[in-house]
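Dear H.,

Thanks for agreeing to be a second pair of eyes. The structure we're designing against is below in token form, covering all 325 positions.
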């Protein structure tokens, strides 16, 4: 009888949690029970987004489930968290999406923004593009939650990136001049899992300090991360194009950093062709864990680990000196 009563209580508790905020119990209560193991936690978040939720097309129920999952994780970590709703028009229809914003205070009130989009296209599972970036962001947030970082950190999961950077464009449109002035830099995480080479990019000149400091960490930690070699004159060495969520921040005059895996030495030398073996994986049916792990054994784990170590140290020790505002 006691066992039966205990089982009933458990079922009631799970059911109650399931209706809090209109989110399924699994979404609210799930989180990796891992400590920081250099990418292991990021992998679990990535897998949850891609398989427990699935493709996360902007404006769909799955995108909303992903929003709620990310929000629940930031709240579990103890961060002040909010959902920034926005609408946009596409094909004559009004579509709703949102950004999930979590704030971590640091030693300085000046802030660094770390962002990754959580939506995907309909093909595949959106593992590389961009459950991988969200996974690394959530792992690093977990690792740093009790560490007094040099700058305050704003973690943002952007919605509707695949529809024209809608989330990041909306976020920057709402920033005041004081907020922009107070932002030391923005670090974007996009498509980290499958490319032949891991990269870090940054703004040109002195505003490229995020990339430069990252490359020093790469050398110290002996990570297999490089920067754009500059083989294409349209994209000078160390920089990249304006095709992801860093672009609106760059236009606002905020220095950027950008972590990505691809291959700048093949195709049109523009960083779009990710692999020698299979070309592009993002935006295709091959953007799944099964395909990537079969064709590139160990690559996901290496990439998530390397990017997690790099971003963690970068946020722990970042110091904007000669170009400080």
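And this is the sequence the design step returned. I haven't edited it by hand at all.
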């Amino acid at each position: 009888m006691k066992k039966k009563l205990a089982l009933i209580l458990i079922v009631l508790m799970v059911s109650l949690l399931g209706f809090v905020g209109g989110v399924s119990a699994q979404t609210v209560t799930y989180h990796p029970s891992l400590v920081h193991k250099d990418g292991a936690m990021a992998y679990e978040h990535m897998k949850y987004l891609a398989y427990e939720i699935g493709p996360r097309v902007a404006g769909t129920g799955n995108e909303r489930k992903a929003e709620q999952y990310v929000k629940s994780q930031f709240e579990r970590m103890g961060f002040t968290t909010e959902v920034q709703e926005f609408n946009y028009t596409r094909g004559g229809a009004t579509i709703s999406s949102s950004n999930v914003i979590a704030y971590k205070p640091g030693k300085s009130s000046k802030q660094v923004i770390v962002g990754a989009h959580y939506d995907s296209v309909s093909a595949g599972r959106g593992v590389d593009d961009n459950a991988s970036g969200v996974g690394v962001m959530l792992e690093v947030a977990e690792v740093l939650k009790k560490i007094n970082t040099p700058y305050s950190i704003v973690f943002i999961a952007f919605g509707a990136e695949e529809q024209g950077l809608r989330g990041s464009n909306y976020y920057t449109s709402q920033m005041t001049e004081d907020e922009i002035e107070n932002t030391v830099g923005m670090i974007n995480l996009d498509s980290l899992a499958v490319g032949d080479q891991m990269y870090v990019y940054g703004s040109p000149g002195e505003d490229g300090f995020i990339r430069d400091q990252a490359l020093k960490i790469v050398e110290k930690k002996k990570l297999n991360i490089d920067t754009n070699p500059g083989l294409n004159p349209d994209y000078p060495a160390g920089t990249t194009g304006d095709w992801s969520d860093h672009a609106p921040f760059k236009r606002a005059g905020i220095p950027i950093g950008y972590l990505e895996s691809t291959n700048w030495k093949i195709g049109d030398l523009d960083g779009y062709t990710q692999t020698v073996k299979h070309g592009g994986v993002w935006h295709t049916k091959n953007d799944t864990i099964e395909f990537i792990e079969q064709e590139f054994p160990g690559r996901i784990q290496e990439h998530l680990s390397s990017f997690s170590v790099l971003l963690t140290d970068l946020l722990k020790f970042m110091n904007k000196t000669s170009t400080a505002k």
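Two observations from my side: The longest strand covers residues 93-104. The two ends are 67 Å apart (CA to CA).

Warmly,
E.
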